[in-house]
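Regression test case RT-17, inverse folding.

Input:
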């Protein structure tokens, strides 16, 4: 993975700042408060297109010049956005074809944001022109730290421009209609295409019914999602090239959204200099949900640190109910990001908007501009901690020996499948295995199926629905050198085009797993089936595959229904070095998943020393000079009584520890231990 990150002397601290919404007299007060809070980095210009280019023939940099000039005077750095995430009204009026056509076939009028067709030549021309003008003007500005292209890319368009672009994309991918017809299996339902012009985007008006996830032809829908990923990526790359023409030495990023289904971020990763993302976990999510997303983002650039580009300091404002972050939760969430690889901690937003849909979104500075609020005090206290920490964590990587494979193609294909069950959530199942590994104390890299697996002792591949390229061979190589590979039901089913393998399930994974799946059952969510795992009575749900061992041994068995006594979990010895392939034939509950994962990790001595302390998260990073850092985070409301396992110093308190020394983590407490 190529690219380079911003160079800083400490963890950058700050966030999205929109001074164009406020009179200039407010800006001076903002910077006074930034100083009190330890804010040193501002993301500027994210939605500034109509300010910078008020008419088609006019560029006006007056506001941005003053904003950046004030930042320079106050000694702050700026992540400068190209401002292209929302088109200005004049552009939409002059080029109505820039409006998106939605899944139901409706051409939209002007409004909202992310309101452009990615195939629109007008949008591409004008957005790249703006990005180039911005770079030309500010490339050598002393405050410039990084370029921020667009903002939270997403959405899809189904207009005629996209239809034509889709056909061009298909020609480049398949070369001939014969190859396309074979890939999509168009002999089904008389769909064989004889002219590229006959192909329409899969929408509510063509192949779909009951919404975007119900399609008659999975192949075309899968390809349209790939195409839309590439279409939006093309917009990013065009702006990046326009910026690079004037600002070659400044790193470029765009802010991702964690495990965001519409876009395959693995296809984007090579084009970013460094990964960054906006963390807004669901309010009822366990702490491992945010950790999972952090590790996915870290995996985009081969384990390099990422930037936490946005998080709320208080509450979001985009859900029906928006709970407030309780005292201590902001600090804990921020340190969790650092523990998982963040080299920046930034917020949305610095000052609350006075109007529109984000006026109640959490902010460092509220509408009254006070510095005596709880939120401001917590932000300032964290700013002081990060300043005291200095560069101690910068550039540090996570030395994980466990990998979790994450595959957008399998996610898409599984959830548009008409069988066996539409109730299976790819994200929930992967998070379940990730959670089990993290709670057992293992560091986990969340990586694409194309990743180099040679560094891992354990590779978890749940719901690996599509088998692409040489992934099956590379998984076998893990076991051949003594490692363990685990996969689950619904894996090894189809090829990259979502065509079923003409072989026993799990297809190319069969030799490694040492089984074949004879048939499969699916049941409603409330109809679990018990599974016996040693002394544990666990439960499976939704999908129940009936497994015939072909060399594998049972580890867990079903104990109900006509398949009682057949294997629900198997283990297969593979290779000459004691490698193993584990197959889980149902969706185990949390207890069952945890038991299986603990058995797998224990085999490789990967159970963490703090795993018995439920609610205490541990994570490691190793700095470029070889210094090992252990992060301990208490996600509970009770004090955790712990014991030091190594000679270390807590970088947040300065307190030294020797092996066996007791120490405590208060409720929502954090320790950053530098090992001696």
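Golden output:
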């Amino acid at each position: 993975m190529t690219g380079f990150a911003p160079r800083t002397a400490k963890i950058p601290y700050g966030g999205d700042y929109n001074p164009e919404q406020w009179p200039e007299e407010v800006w001076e007060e903002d910077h006074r408060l930034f100083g009190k809070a330890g804010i040193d980095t501002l993301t500027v210009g994210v939605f500034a297109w109509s300010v910078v280019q008020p008419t088609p023939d006019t560029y006006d940099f007056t506001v941005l010049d003053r904003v950046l000039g004030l930042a320079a005077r106050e000694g702050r750095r700026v992540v400068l956005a190209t401002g292209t995430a929302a088109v200005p009204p004049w552009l939409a009026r002059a080029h109505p074809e820039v409006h998106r056509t939605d899944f139901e076939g409706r051409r939209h009028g002007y409004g909202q944001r992310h309101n452009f067709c990615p195939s629109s030549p007008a949008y591409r021309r004008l957005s790249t022109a703006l990005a180039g003008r911005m770079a030309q003007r500010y490339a050598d500005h002393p405050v410039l730290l990084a370029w921020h292209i667009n903002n939270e890319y997403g959405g899809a368009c189904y207009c005629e421009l996209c239809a034509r672009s889709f056909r061009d994309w298909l020609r480049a991918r398949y070369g001939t209609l014969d190859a396309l017809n074979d890939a999509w299996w168009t002999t089904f339902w008389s769909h064989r295409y004889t002219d590229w012009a006959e192909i329409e985007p899969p929408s509510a008006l063509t192949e779909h019914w009951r919404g975007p996830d119900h399609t008659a032809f999975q192949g075309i829908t899968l390809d349209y999602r790939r195409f839309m990923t590439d279409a939006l990526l093309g917009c990013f790359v065009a702006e990046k090239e326009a910026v690079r023409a004037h600002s070659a030495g400044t790193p470029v990023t765009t802010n991702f959204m964690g495990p965001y289904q519409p876009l395959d971020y693995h296809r984007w990763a090579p084009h970013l200099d460094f990964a960054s993302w906006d963390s807004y976990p669901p309010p009822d999510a366990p702490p491992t949900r945010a950790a999972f997303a952090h590790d996915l983002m870290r995996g985009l650039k081969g384990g390099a640190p990422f930037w936490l580009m946005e998080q709320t300091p208080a509450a979001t404002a985009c859900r029906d109910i928006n709970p407030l972050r309780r005292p201590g939760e902001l600090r804990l969430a921020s340190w969790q990001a650092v523990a998982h690889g963040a080299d920046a901690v930034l917020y949305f937003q610095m000052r609350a908007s006075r109007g529109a849909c984000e006026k109640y979104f959490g902010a460092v500075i509220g509408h009254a501009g006070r510095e005596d609020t709880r939120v401001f005090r917590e932000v300032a206290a964290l700013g002081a901690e990060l300043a005291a920490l200095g560069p101690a964590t910068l550039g540090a990587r996570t030395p994980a020996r466990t990998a979790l494979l994450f595959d957008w193609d399998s996610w898409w294909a599984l959830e548009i499948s008409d069988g066996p069950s539409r109730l299976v959530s790819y994200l929930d199942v992967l998070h379940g295995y990730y959670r089990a590994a993290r709670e057992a104390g293992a560091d986990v890299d969340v990586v694409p199926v194309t990743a180099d697996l040679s560094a891992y002792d354990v590779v978890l591949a749940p719901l690996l629905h599509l088998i692409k390229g040489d992934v099956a061979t590379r998984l076998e190589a893990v076991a051949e050198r003594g490692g363990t590979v685990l996969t689950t039901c619904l894996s090894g089913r189809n090829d990259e085009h979502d065509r079923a393998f003409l072989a026993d399930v799990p297809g190319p994974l069969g030799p490694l797993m040492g089984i074949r799946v004879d048939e499969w059952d699916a049941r409603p969510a409330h109809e679990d089936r018990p599974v016996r795992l040693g002394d544990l009575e666990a439960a499976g749900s939704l999908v129940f595959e009936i497994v015939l061992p072909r060399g594998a041994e049972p580890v867990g068995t079903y104990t109900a229904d006509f398949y009682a006594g057949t294997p629900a979990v198997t283990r297969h010895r593979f290779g000459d070095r004691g490698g193993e392939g584990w197959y889980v034939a149902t969706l185990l509950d949390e207890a069952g998943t945890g038991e299986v994962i603990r058995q797998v990790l224990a085999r490789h001595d990967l159970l963490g020393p703090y795993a018995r302390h439920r609610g205490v998260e541990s994570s490691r990073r190793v700095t470029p000079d070889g210094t090992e850092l252990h992060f301990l985070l208490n996600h509970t409301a009770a004090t955790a009584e712990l014991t030091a396992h190594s000679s270390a110093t807590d970088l947040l308190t300065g307190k030294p520890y020797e092996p066996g020394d007791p120490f405590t983590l208060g409720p929502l407490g954090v320790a950053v231990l530098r090992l001696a």
